[in-house]
Amino acid sequence: MPVYNAPLLQVDPKETRRYAGLMKAEGFDEEKIENACQDARLLASPRGIWQIYDYNCDRQEVCADPPFIIQGKKIGAHLAGCDKVILLSATVGEEIEETVTRLFAEGEYTASVLLDAAATTAVEQIADDMEKVIRPKAAAQGYGMRWRFSPGYGDWPIDQQPELIRLAKAGEIGVSLSSSMMLIPRKSITAIIGLYKEGTRKEQAVHAKGCAACSKLDCPSRVIRP
Amino acid sequence: MIHIFDGAMGTMLQAGGLKPGACPELMNLKHPDVVKGIHRAYIDAGSTIIETNTFGASSLKLAHYGLQDRMAEINAAAVKIAREAADGRAKVAGSIGPTGRFVFPLGDLDFEEAYQCFFDQARALAEAGANYLLFETCIDIQEMRAAVLAAKDAAPDIPIICQLSYSEDGRTVTGTDPRSAAIILEALGADIIGVNCSLGPEQLVPIVRTLAQNCSVPVSVQPNAGMPHLDENGETVFPMDAASFGSWAPKLLEAGATWLGGCCGTTPEHIRAMAEALKGCSEPARQPRQPKLWLASRSKSVCVDRSLPTVLIGERINPTGRKKLAAEIRDGSLLSVKKEAVNQVKAGAALLDVNMGVGGIDQAAAMKKAVSEIAQLTDAPLVIDTSDAKALEAGLRAYPGRALINSVSAEDARIAEFLPLARKYGAAILCLPITEDGVPKTAEARLDAVRFIIQSAKKQGLRDGDFLLDALVMTVSADVHACQEVLRTLQLYRRELGYPSTMGLSNISFGLPNRPLINSTFFAMSLACGLDAPIMNPYDESMQRALKASAALLGHDPNGLAFSKDEANLSVPKKAAVAKTSDLDPLSAIKQAVIEGEKDEIVGLVEKALREGFDSNEITEKALTAAMTDIGEDFGSGRMFLPQVLLSAETMRAAFNRLKELIPASAKADKGTVVIATVKGDVHDLGKNITGALLANSGFRLIDLGKDVDAAEIVKAAMENKADIVGLCALMTTTMVQIDKVIEQLKEAGCPAKVMVGGAAVTQDYADHAGADAYASDGVKAVKLAKDMLGIR
């Protein structure tokens, strides 16, 4: 069931605030953020695709044909104990990005930056919704899901992107790579999710998740935990 | 009567020799004795209805094993085995699982392909003698709709059982809640509505209850034996034992399910425990359901009823009289349609009317596309507004919900063409009192026309919850009784028929001055006479205010609480900052407006300052540049954030532009020349654009080369423009190395410009290493560094 284009019934304004670096800003016009979220919904063409593979964690090998050896210690540790992996890709399409560029060129700097942040929120939501669809399927087979991990997190080199594109079959939803390993459209995601046997080994808590795992401490979008 | 289903099939097949990775349904041909043994075990345990081993025997699923050509054979064998095993002791339900793919636009499976797949399997099961068709474990209401439509066509006489799977949040993973599912599926003609799999019995109790409260057909439930995990051998284990499982059966029965069984992890022992626990239990008394008008989208249901607040039907998705919208629809663009959908819901519309009536286009194709795209974007149920039967069917088929048809008149053609479609797709109808002779003048004649429509509809199988009555508004300037007759019609409808009412309002005031006043007054009168669901422009403020006041007066807004709150909000001035700037001297006011990002104020303030004798230089230096300096400090110290800085930059730009228009010599970019670019291979340019905008608004001459720019081109531009500074941006580790290359080539060319670098992956260390003169962590910093490098203040 690999294609799932999640509806965007809303784009979360709180996350958009965060991606716009406005978490600590006071008195910023909420309507501007809401407008950006709404425009993102109108301009987005949500697409998502995933494939499931067997995984050998000793060799960090995704058992595809041809197989894919994952480089990077952190991702290796993150997938330890998993015997299947899901390769997924999601995108909001090109139109939103064209509008971000056009708005900026027209001098609508703020609207442009906010729409860019809303697009980031939207593509993350699409991937979250895909996980929501995948989770019960995995659970029905007794599997739990690790959180999704993308090239560029930790020490996973982004020059492994072509393999993720290949294995997720991202081309089918119009996601590709530039020569410098950038996702096209820009607001796209490729990621891997490890499936582990529920009950035999719990999700490992040793590795920090999300923002806590990132070394960019001065990031304006960093989630601050109490 | 209480019916007991069987339990899991897959695990029993494995125990009977099914190899991992093999096709379970092929067992029907290869090992019929094993399958028959499982059926018998369940019947012996107490099952009164057993499921054929055909969950994955659709052509789409069998294709995974290359067995699609044997679909009919496998299904026929399965029914034969089940019937032999039952031998009159149990009924046989033909099990049909999901296709494994999502139906477009949620996924890549075409609705018609899904329909065909279900049709073929349903027919194979029916022809072989199944007593029921059971669609189960479905997670997408649109796929279930395809299944029901297919089953009705393939086997019209066999009852259909529809079971969706819900997650812990009480919705299917694609967002459908049990109430919406019950409304959609009952209207579509499901004979039994239920839930199976994914959760244990405890979590299914509330879902069963909601289903039972929202439909009048029997409810079924088949829980898993708890939530599974894998054991050391990699086997899936469901933790709930037979006794605990059985103990939940009376609770599920009490919640409203009379068809009960098990799903994953259940065995004949679980079913035996269930059957034992239900012995002596009596069927729960279901509350007779009030036939109310319910409409539903994939994830939300809306009720139109006199006991509930007024339901607004947004009328704006309609190209009639709107040239621009019509042209867009003709060109195949739906952007404005989508905007209208989202904005109307924001403005309070609970239902959205969709009319694609543009001449010279394929109405059916346009309606199908509009309906599927709007349904992906908003959860307000839709009203399909067309006079074209083909477009109506296309819209109804594509809609993953229960829609309202706008409209069915008492004219022969409409009755003949539209009513069967309403029945087939489970849609409600808006009854329009127009006869072959035109619009009846009196309320009594309209009542007669509507009665005729309802009688005809009931003959087709429509029921009491399927009607919304239009009172039909005529123009008061043409007919002095128009308003009176409409109000009387509303009262008559309510008194004589009791169904909810609707109408388009604005026609009443045609040809009169101050139409908003007439419309809102008429609206208030209509609400008092029983109007339930006006079709209107939800952006119209006078109508919205009349509605809020009427709600307070008619008791829909107890004690006028919402009304009072609204009024209080309206009296607050929009922005405190507006008042602030007016108290200040002109230069401080400009500075303040820039800092606050008051883009709409700034031009007026600049003009005022010029009128009061300040020259452009003073305005630039003491107000605009001074503001930017403060902003830079606030940003640096974390008191201000990037989008706020950009708002200030926009404000500043508006000020500069106005100055330039009034005094062309002013606002010259004389601080120095900056050439900026995102390096070769990198397509991220928002950060670079931000930096460019801030530099340009700080008096620098900016030459922006764009993104993905070759080193040679950057060097050439720097030399030709006698750049003082070259700004390079790279976002990623893979493109960062281009910075080194550009710097090297600039040096080779003897370019005297300073080099400033930045971008997400770039660091001070990297900048130093590459031989850059400065590293800017953000656009504000870049402006400061540029000034420092060129020795400006």
From TrEMBL, chain A:
Top-level taxon of origin: Bacteria
GO molecular function: methionine synthase activity
Protein name in UniProt: Methionine synthase
Organism, as annotated: Selenomonas montiformis
Gene3D superfamilies assigned to the protein according to its UniProt record, in alphabetical order: 3.40.109.40
Automatic annotation (TrEMBL), chain B:
Pfam family, one: B12-binding
Domain Pterin-binding: 310-554
Keyword list, A-Z: Amino-acid biosynthesis, Cobalamin, Cobalt, Metal-binding, Methionine biosynthesis, Methyltransferase, S-adenosyl-L-methionine, Transferase, Zinc
Residue ranges occupied by any B12-binding N-terminal domain in the UniProt entry: 577-671
Entry-linked PROSITE patterns: B12_BINDING (PS51332), B12_BINDING_NTER (PS51337), HCY (PS50970), PTERIN_BINDING (PS50972)
Example of a GO biological process term: homocysteine metabolic process
Enzyme Commission number, as recorded: 2.1.1.13
SMART domains in alphabetical order: B12-binding_2 (SM01018)
Cofactor: methylcob(III)alamin; Zn(2+)
Pathway: Amino-acid biosynthesis; L-methionine biosynthesis via de novo pathway; L-methionine from L-homocysteine (MetH route): step 1/1
Gene3D superfamilies attached to this UniProt entry: Cobalamin-binding domain, Dihydropteroate synthase-like, Homocysteine-binding-like domain, Methionine synthase domain
One annotated Gene Ontology cellular component of this protein: cytosol
Residues holding Zn(2+): 197, 263-264
Family, per entry: Belongs to the vitamin-B12 dependent methionine synthase family.
Protein name, as recorded: Methionine synthase
Organism: Selenomonas montiformis
